[in-house]
Specification:
Helix content: 25-40%
Distance between the termini: 17 Å
Number of domains: 1
Strand content: 25-35%
Radius of gyration: 17 Å
Structural class: alpha+beta
Length: 250
């Protein structure tokens, strides 16, 4: 497995002028989750990226992973299996109110956001629909797709530096493309949040126009894949404190 210990400095060095701008009122980061869908069926592992609409005020035109903030109903969504104990433990490090429900809610957020932004429903189909906590998860009930948290791997955590216009405490997860159980057509397009999707070899993905932290986490993902995607591997945590950029291992 390649050494990624240098990536904390890489994050600091690569940040653009706009990413370094800390002239905004400070705010508390919102819990969020992102999913890096990976296809390992070919010679080179590929990752799914989406390009944001140029009309968005937040990261217009950037290539990103599908993701967003945790919603209250996410914790109530049913699933076929639980998170691996190592993932649950790491998700509850350095959080205000650690719990099994909080950890699984983060993973479910990543699955829901992927469905909303790409039309890809991850999990497994069954004869009966899953128990859903409201309209926000309705598409899974319609398609009879049950989220399967046993397929999830935890890759990284990153908090937006202070005094930025939007701040998130984001957990980056990955799932293999074989977890795609259903596709909703027409979700991605010229008038959608994501205007296109692209499968790109991980080693080449950073060539796209993307936020600095996205490129850094791609390197973490590649190292994790080369390491066999073991749950026991430490998870890097990126944050800024007292004007110093940090990369700690969970």
């Amino acid at each position: 497995m390649r050494d990624t210990s240098h990536l904390g400095q890489v994050w600091a060095d690569r940040m653009t002028r706009s990413e370094r701008d800390q002239s905004f009122p400070d705010s508390v980061p919102r819990d969020a989750a992102t999913l890096m869908l990976i296809d390992r069926s070919g010679t080179l592992p590929k990752v799914l990226l989406g390009r944001r609409h140029h009309g968005h005020k937040f990261m217009p035109g950037k290539f990103v992973f599908p993701g967003g903030r945790l919603e209250p109903h996410d914790a109530e969504m049913s699933s076929l299996s639980d998170l691996h104990p190592d993932i649950q433990a790491k998700l509850n490090v350095r959080v205000a109110s650690p719990s099994a429900d909080f950890a699984r809610a983060l993973a479910l957020t990543a699955i829901r956001e992927t469905a909303e932004e790409t039309g890809l429903l991850l999990g497994a189909k069954r004869d009966e629909p899953p128990s859903t906590p409201g309209e926000i998860w309705a598409e899974f009930a319609k398609a009879k797709v049950h989220p399967d948290l046993g397929q999830i791997h935890f890759i990284a955590r990153a908090i937006t530096p202070p005094r930025r216009p939007k701040r998130f405490d984001t957990r980056f997860f990955t799932v293999d493309a074989t977890a795609i159980a259903h596709r909703i057509e027409g979700v991605v397009g010229p008038d959608s949040e994501l205007v296109e999707l692209t499968w790109t070899p991980i080693e080449q993905a950073a060539q796209h126009d993307m936020p600095t932290i996205t490129g850094v986490v791609l390197e973490e993902l590649l190292a994790r894949v080369e390491g066999g995607l073991k749950h026991s591997l430490p998870v890097p945590f990126y944050f800024m404190e007292n004007q110093v950029y940090h990369r700690e291992l969970l």
